[in-house]
Structure formats: C-alpha cells, structure tokens
C-alpha cells in the first residue's frame, strides 16, 4: 500500500470541502474544536477561495483515494498547519509522512515559524507535534504548538525535489498512465 501526496490545484479546492463532508462527526470535532456541519464547511471553502494565495492543501492518497489532508495557512513569515487523517487509515504513519513533507515545503519557502492549534483533549495531535519538535503551551484553554523553522539549504531543496518526483510517479501510476 503506497501513500503518495500532492498539492491540490487552486481550481480543485471544492474537493477538500466534499472530502471534509464525508468524514465522521467525531473527526470533524477533533479537527475544528466544534461540530461543523455541511453549511459551515461550505462557508469555510468560500473563505479559502477568496484568499487562495494564503491557503495550500497537501493531500495524501492511496490508490487514488484521499486519506488525509494538511491545510497550510500562511501569513507573513508564519505557517499554520491543520492535519486530518481519515479514521480507517490512522496509526500507519501517514500524518508523520505528511508533516515531514509540509515542514520541508514551508522551510524551502523561507517561512520562519510554524503554529499548530490543538484542543487540550486531543492527545494524538499533541504527541504528533511533540514528535516533530513543536513546543506546546496552553493558550486560553487550548494548546498552541510552535516551532521555528530551520533555514532552507541545498539539501532540503534537493530532498523536496526528489520527494515530489516520487509522489508524481505514484500519482501518474494511480491514473494508469
Ligand atoms: C492526529 C492525527 C492527524 C494523527 O494521524 P496518524 O496518521 O494516525 O498519525 P501517525 O500514524 O502518523 O502517527 C505519528 C505520531 O503521532 C502520534 N500519535 C498518532 N496517533 C496517536 C494516538 N492515537 N495516541 C498517541 N499518539 C498518537 C504519535 O507520536 C505517532 O508517532 P509513533 O507512531 O512513533 O508513536 C489523526 O489522529 C487525526 O486525523 N485526528 C483527527 C483530526 C485531528 O485531531 N487533527 C488535529 C487538529 S490540527
């Protein structure tokens, strides 16, 4: 079972909304911190579409099926990540893989700081952040995990390039090309 990733093109952001709507309510609550229904999701997608330059979506797929997404919101020198892995595909290292790729993407685009917001009860995401070197602190009852991103260098650029080629290969393979 090969997991490969790709960035969603701007014209396909609506697909992210459809995928969110297909997820179970417990996952959506863990992710958003509130129970967000279809209308709330539509509102969110409309908001992203109005500000495409600051929203990026790294999608993980298995056999052409979406299994996880990292939403990257950027402002000034900071990126904020939000990650969801579909319930049936958890504990397989997919978030680990995606976070590593998203970190490198942000590093190579000269962002300096990463933030991830987690609700206090969300133990898996707090552990994931800890594993990747983010420092957590309590902010108004929630947890804000942050890290300073390392500067990009030729190795990180090369690494991203190779990673993209591998992902592209598996993507084309999944399309039967
Ligand atoms: C949090 C979440 C993204 C983890 O995804 P995942 O693909 O299952 O995570 P991985 O298998 O890659 O695990 C990576 C690390 O995360 C941590 N982790 C993941 N699930 C965990 C769990 N149930 N309990 C404890 N630690 C966990 C561990 O540190 C793990 O490393 P390890 O396997 O070496 O112990 C997933 O549970 C999820 O989508 N939850 C719902 C949405 C959500 O809460 N998003 C966070 C808001 S930003």
From TrEMBL:
Start and end residues of each N-acetyltransferase domain: 18-156
Which residues fall in a coiled-coil region?
A: none
Q: Which Gene3D superfamilies match?
A: 3.40.630.30
The transmembrane segments are none
Q: What GO annotations for molecular function exist for this entry?
A: acyltransferase activity, transferring groups other than amino-acyl groups
SUPFAM superfamilies referenced in this protein's UniProt entry, alphabetically: Acyl-CoA N-acyltransferases (Nat)
- The name under which this protein is listed is GNAT family N-acetyltransferase
- Source organism per UniProt: Polynucleobacter sp. UK-FUSCHL-C3
């Amino acid at each position: 079972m090969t997991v490969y990733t790709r960035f969603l093109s701007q014209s396909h952001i609506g697909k992210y909304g459809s995928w969110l709507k297909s997820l179970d309510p417990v996952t959506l609550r863990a992710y958003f911190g509130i129970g967000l229904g279809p209308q709330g999701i539509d509102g969110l997608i409309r908001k992203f579409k109005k500000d495409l330059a600051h929203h990026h979506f790294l999608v993980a797929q298995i056999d052409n099926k979406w299994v996880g997404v990292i939403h990257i919101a950027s402002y000034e020198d900071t990126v904020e990540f939000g990650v969801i892995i579909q319930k049936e595909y958890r504990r397989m290292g997919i978030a680990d893989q995606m976070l590593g790729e998203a970190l490198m993407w942000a590093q190579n685009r000269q962002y300096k700081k990463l933030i991830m917001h987690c609700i206090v009860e969300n133990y898996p995401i707090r552990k994931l952040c800890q594993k990747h070197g983010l420092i957590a602190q309590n902010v108004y009852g929630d947890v804000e995990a942050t890290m300073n991103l390392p500067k990009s260098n030729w190795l990180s650029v090369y690494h991203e390039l190779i990673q993209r080629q591998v992902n592209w290969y598996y993507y084309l393979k999944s399309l039967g090309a």
